[in-house]
Design a protein that fits this description.
about 80% helix; 12 helices; about 0% strand; mainly alpha; single chain
Length: about 280
């Protein structure tokens, strides 16, 4: 799960790279990312599953729904970033998501988080606040609403992926969910003027990274981990994503490494270490 979060931490820098080298909007980039991912995933699922019984229709629809919710969370987050910058939408989406997941885990499954998990959650969220607070941007009401929507949908797929992943193989679930995400984003893409085309070698390289590495590999790791890890543990481990994104921004995009970034990173890593000690 931690490796998936590390890979997801490259999403922001890779998306920025694509934006610098193409005319694609965030919605179009999201769709291309999923289209590039779904083709090899479907081929792999068909080859691996040759001769095996087809998964039940209910599980297929469940996998599509998980992917659709994932796609909507991503879309809402990208739209919030366009509307209100990076810092506050990331803080709301990544900070509120684990809280909503912990509440849902208790309300839906009756699985109350233990003391160590709650402490790790508090430490990780404190680190996230420190990590993001040094990047102020003008925030609008629409940006806040979109950020909250991203957090709600994030909690929705974090809670739903566990039951679905236990009924489908990792390969099948990754392929089905990726297709569901692409289908969910498709109407918004046409409303945005169509899918567009990356148009440059650098742009295609960024899209291939987002599709093959970030989507295929990282989501396969995520869905595999979801079989055994509690939803709250998953959401805290995923908080590594903004830490990695911040470090890459410093190393490759010329952004400053502040005291808040350093302190926030230490707190988030401490939270992850605490969870691994509990496993």
């Amino acid at each position: 799960m931690a490796l998936a979060a590390l890979l997801w931490g490259t999403i922001g820098p890779a998306a920025a790279f694509v934006a610098d080298h193409t005319a694609l909007s965030p919605v179009q980039t999201s769709l291309w990312r999923l289209i590039v991912a779904v083709v090899p995933l479907v081929v792999i699922a068909l080859v691996v599953g040759r001769g095996a019984a087809r998964p039940p229709r209910a599980l297929v629809f469940g996998g599509l729904a998980v992917g659709a919710v994932t796609g909507m969370s991503q879309l809402a987050y990208f739209a919030a970033v366009v509307e209100s910058g990076i810092a506050i939408p990331t803080l709301i989406a990544c900070g509120l998501g684990p809280i909503l997941t912990a509440v849902g885990q208790t309300a839906i499954f009756g699985d109350r988080p233990d003391a160590r998990t709650l402490i790790a959650l508090a430490v990780a969220l404190s680190g996230l606040v420190l990590l993001m607070v040094d990047s102020p941007h003008t925030v609008t009401g629409l940006g806040i609403v979109l950020s909250v929507l991203s957090a709600i949908t994030y909690a929705g797929y974090a809670l739903s992926v566990g039951p679905v992943s236990r009924g489908l193989s990792t390969v099948n679930l990754t392929a089905i969910a990726t297709a569901g995400g692409a289908l969910a984003i498709l109407p918004f893409t046409f409303a945005d003027g169509g899918p567009g085309v990356p148009g440059t070698a650098a742009g295609w390289a960024g899209i291939l990274h987002l599709g093959l590495i970030v989507s295929c590999v990282a989501y396969a790791l995520y869905y595999s981990s979801a079989r055994t890890l509690p939803s709250t543990h998953i959401t805290i481990l995923i908080l590594l994503e903004p830490l990695v994104a911040a470090l890459l921004a410093v190393l490759f995009f010329g952004e400053s490494l502040t005291a808040g970034t350093l302190a926030g990173g230490v707190l988030m890593l401490a939270a992850v270490a605490g969870l691994r000690g509990d496993d």
